[in-house]
Amino acid sequence: MRKVHRKWFSAGIVLIASLSLAVSGCSDTSKNSEPANKAGGAASDNAAKSITVLVEGGGPANTVASQTAEEFKQKTGYEVKIETVPYTGVYDKLNVEMKANTGAYDVATIDVLWFPSLAKGLVPMDAMVNEVKNDIVPNVVEGGIVDGKILGMPVWTNSKILLYRTDLFNDPKEQADFKAKYGYDLKPPANWQQYRDVAKFFTRDTNSDGVTDLYGTGVLGMNNGDSVASWLDHAAQAGAKPLVVGKDNKAAVNSEPYVKALDFLTTILQKDKSAPEGALNMASSEISEMFYSGKMAMMLEWAHFFVPAGDPAKSKVAGNVGAAPMIAGDAGVGVVPGPWYQVIPSSSKKQDIAKQYVKFIYDHNEMFMKALGVATRKSVFDAYGQKPEYAHLKALETTLAANQTQNRPVLTHWNEIESEALSSAVQSALSGKESAQSALDKATKRINEIQGK
Fold first, then answer.
1. Residues 146, 127: Cα–Cα separation, whole Å
2. SS3 of 347, please?
3. Helix (H) or strand (E) holding 382
4. 290 CB-near residues (< 8 Å, 6+ apart)
5. According to DSSP H, which parts of 316-350 are helical?
6. Which strands sit side by side in the sheet containing 107-111, from one edge to the other?
7. Which end of the chain has the least Cβ crowding within 10 Å, N or C?
8. At what angle do helices 256-266 and 423-430 cross, to 10 degrees?
9. How confident is the model over 75-127, as pLDDT tens digits?
């Protein structure tokens, strides 16, 4: 998912908090690093010392970097210069820097999607990450591995889970009507068939005016990475493993699990009509807006979208939102996570202090939970998961730990594959222009062309 998985921006909500946590330095060194100043040095000695941190403007990485900059300076004597750019600007700036080799950036926070193409210009972090990996939630460390090297320290992870309206699911009349129609109890769906049944049941004209006022769910159909991630979630549930390509690196997206997943989404949209007709123009932001406006009974969305669930100013269904793990297909529960990482460009002239900064931010991981509603440390998940306002965390942890949950493939040309082959195939099938099989046959051919297979 581009800027979704995901991930944070489309919720339209960033909760800002200021926390003060202890910092511990990192002892890793680099031959081209600048020696780190010890805390308590003379101000005149430290005045010119700084590191430059690249982040997406307005996002959680910017929030945490800004809130911790002064503390880091007090601890190390280094000023933190924060450069903010739009989402794609982070990738573009790093890509240019790796060719120019100017040392413009010492640390950056990046989407997992960018590792394949940036890998050659990043400093390995195996030693640093291995020290703390037992406190990191499942599948996150693996997302930052390219060619056997760990290239990033996770800052947060995310995946889609089930969010649903408890006022509807707990209503005695709705429960009785559902059981009379489908023969089993109304509950948060756990598999594809239950999901279809519940979505159809709640899709209705509440005002008897011929207009659908309440939809059972939504389908991510916009021509972007969000729709691809959603479809791959269901492909994993149907048995796809590994994703997109086989062990020979040739495309496998026209095989049964991928076709079944795309047929599943197309059925919800076209046959059941349980999702809005405008799905081809809907990504996470549009679907979550409908849900929190009271026009949707449930949605499979990124876990941090639970954040406005208790805020009446942000939601017409505040206080009536539940969270459950992602639904399962024939192979079980599975999703494609959307983690983000801190990385150090190999062109940095201050790698030692950069590593201290990465460790410093890891020690402040709780701040991402406050800013976004997700984090990366198990200890942070455990501490916040007991709070009602973070009820989504248990569902997220269960989903991330599922057997079919897996990262996107590490493919150098992933961006082209996603935009030129996969997005168009998903849209073509959802629109009814061609069958899922036909659309994915074409996607398979295009992926192999892109990879020179």
1. 15
2. coil
3. helix 378-384
4. 215, 218, 276, 296
5. none
6. 79-85, 50-56, 107-111, 340-343, 153-156
7. C
8. 50
9. 999 999 999 999 999 999 999 999 999 999 999 999 999 999 999 999 999 99
Q: Residue written as tokens 């709640």?
A: 202
C-alpha triplet 195, 197, 198: angle, nearest 5°: 65
DSSP count for the chain of H helices, then E strands: 19, 12
- Please give the structure tokens belonging to residue 376: 């990366």
Helix 436-450, helix 423-430: angle, nearest 10:
170
Instruction: Give the angle subtended at the CA of 189 by the CAs of 186 and 190, to the nearest 5°.
Output: 135
Q: Which two tokens stand for residue 23?
A: 């910092």
3-class SS of residue 444: helix
Residue among 299, 403, 338 nearest 143 (CA): 338
Alpha helices (H) along 203-249: 225-237
* CA–CA gap between residue 55 and residue 290 (Å, rounded): 30
In whole angstroms, give the CA distance from residue 262 to residue 437.
9
Could you report the per-residue pLDDT of 342-393, keeping only the tens digit for each? 999 999 999 999 999 999 999 999 999 999 999 999 999 999 999 999 999 9
> Tokens in use for 247?
């062990």
Question: Cβ distance 80 to 350 under 8 Å?
Answer: no
Nearest 5°: CA angle at 272, between 270 and 274? 95
Q: What tokens were used for 296?
A: 């949707």
Do residues 239 and 233 touch, judged by C-beta distance below 8 A? no
Residue 117 identity (one-letter amino acid): S
Per DSSP (E only), the strands in 293-371 are: 298-302, 321-324, 328-329, 332-333, 340-343
Cβ neighbours for 324, distance < 8 A, ≥ 6 positions apart = 161, 162, 164, 188, 190, 395
293 phi and psi, to 5 degrees? -90, 0
What are the tens digits of pLDDT across the range 24-71? Answer: 233 233 333 333 333 333 333 444 699 999 999 999 999 999 999 999
Beta bridge partners of 107: 53
The Cα–Cα gap between 5 and 339 comes to 7
User: How big is the chain, counted in residues?
Assistant: 453
Tokens of 48: 């010119």
| DSSP-assigned letter for residue 365 | T
**Residue 108 — φ and ψ, nearest 5°?**
-145, 150
Q: DSSP 3-state assignment of 87?
A: helix
